[in-house]
Amino acid sequence: MPKQSFKVCLCWRRVFKTRVVEPPLDIKNAFYSFSPSGMMTVDDLLRFLIEHQGQKNATKEDAQAIFYSLKHLNIFQRRGLHLEAFFRYLLGDLNLAHPPSKVHHDMNAPLSHYFLFTGHNSYLTGNQFSSASSVEPIKDALLRGVRVIELDLWPNSSGNDVNVCHGRTLTSSVGLQKCLEAIKENAFKASEYPVIITFEDHLNPNLQEKVAKMVTETFGDILYTSETENLEQFLSPESLKKKVLISTKPPKEYLEGNTQGEEISENEGGTVANECQSSSQWNPPEEGEHVPDEDEGKVVPEYRQLIAINARKLEGGLENWLSDDPKKVSRISLSEQKLESAAKTYGTKTVMFTQRNLLRVYPKRTRLDSSNYNPFVGWMHGAQMVAFNMQGHGKRLWIMQGMFRANGGCGYVKKPDFLLHRGPNDEVKVYLGEGWHQDFHHTAFDRYSPPDFYTRIGVAGVPADKDVKQTATIEDEWLPVWDEEFKFQLRAPELAVLRIKILDYNTTGRHYFGGQVCLPVSELRTGIRAVPLHDKKGNKYKHARLLLSIKFEAP
């Protein structure tokens, strides 16, 4: 049996024997109930898939494919699978709780009927105040399936070109042309469904004309432009496949010569401005605030024609912002605080507004560290574009990534019916985990011994569904076996995300991260399933995974 040694001091070492994990009792019972002879045939495996795993449409070819997948193992026997081979199948990629899937939601409804994977300040590499701007976060977001990219447009220091940066901060800038080229190159690698670019425009008419030329020349035929300024209903994701859409407010008048009264954003105080601010001769509005109507005579028609989704100016109060014009649809943007106010005071009106129109929610200005907010407040009220800072990590970003693993990871998730039309007891059993010793150095968690793993498992969703449970801690073990069962009652499973986080217990109170995963509850497969784990940034580990038993029962 292999051993691992941990150096404690110059004098001596601690030696731990590593062991091969055995199948838990439930798995042994399942195996022998379908193969009493101790050897599982193809027909036995097919019965297991249909009756125990709930795969009602499983075929003999599916069972045969599992047999073939195990051929490379020394434990495989032609006559059938014995217990160890069956156990390896359960932990393998052919038995995932949420396997890679194709798009299966109806994609022919209007855009307003979907949640969209949405980024905030998509060009920033780090914090919102002093980090670099780059095309790399844009590429990374698109390759992860993000469908809405935000770009802030400002004049460069000479006033003759357009840069992208977070104005009135110390962030650096990146050229707009580079951003557009990065979007074109990566837009449809992860998903063929439309990419929407939201512009925060701080430009004069001359530069708006330049932007219009850049955009049309860069995207060519894949740029979608509307023949009418006022749409009565948005088109569908299906009809907009492999198209790029621009969404922004109609351009406002550039105030030449306005060198006085440059406002400072509430979170940036009297700091030194970046070139995006210092080059601007007028006072840009706060994100989501009212923008005065432009002088129509000074508007660049080529720029206006770019706008496929009109972002509406905000007039009056919340109730007026959420008014639904039956003759045209539009998009509005609200900060997370404004959304919370709308949810408390005009919850039903917010849902009704988002049945036809688009609502974008963005982080409050004090999130300088690029942290994120609770996405379920937006999703519960139908907000399609819950904009997140994608460059960080943490619980809320993991939940966002988990939600958009649904529907084949295409970046569009159909809203549940209760958000579109007017007028269950759940059970998860955590068996065991494996693979950490292959993905981590043997002293990654503890210099003197193997890790002491425990699992936190919970549901993120509407307030009534939120719940977190925790397993016992398994000490000094790379292959922990918990064999614990937890039940969660769900009122809105369509909006629920299963959250799993593995930690190494430490007596100092600083528990070390051992992996995480978030999965859409609505797409989980029942039965005994493997669940690969991911790192803090959402990248999948090569080997580390859990084995779960998942059941859904009516209340």
From TrEMBL:
It is found in: Cell membrane. Pfam families: C2, PI-PLC-X, PI-PLC-Y. Its EC number is 3.1.4.11. Residues 287-297 have a biased composition (Basic and acidic residues). It is an enzyme of class 3 (hydrolase). GO terms for cellular component: plasma membrane. Keywords: Cell membrane, Hydrolase, Lipid degradation, Lipid metabolism, Membrane, Transducer. The keyword Cell membrane applies. Residues 409-535 form the C2 domain. It catalyses: a 1,2-diacyl-sn-glycero-3-phospho-(1D-myo-inositol-4,5-bisphosphate) + H2O = 1D-myo-inositol 1,4,5-trisphosphate + a 1,2-diacyl-sn-glycerol + H(+). It is a peripheral membrane protein. Gene3D superfamilies: C2 domain, EF-hand, Phosphatidylinositol (PI) phosphodiesterase. One of its GO terms (biological process) is response to stress. Residues 333-419 form the PI-PLC Y-box domain. Its cofactor is Ca(2+). Residues 252-297 are annotated as: Disordered. Residues 274-283 have a biased composition (Polar residues). InterPro entries: C2_dom, C2_domain_sf, EF-hand-dom_pair, PI-PLC_fam, PLC-like_Pdiesterase_TIM-brl, PLipase_C_PInositol-sp_X_dom, PLipase_C_Pinositol-sp_Y. One of its GO terms (molecular function) is phosphatidylinositol-4,5-bisphosphate phospholipase C activity. This is Phosphoinositide phospholipase C. It comes from Gossypium tomentosum.
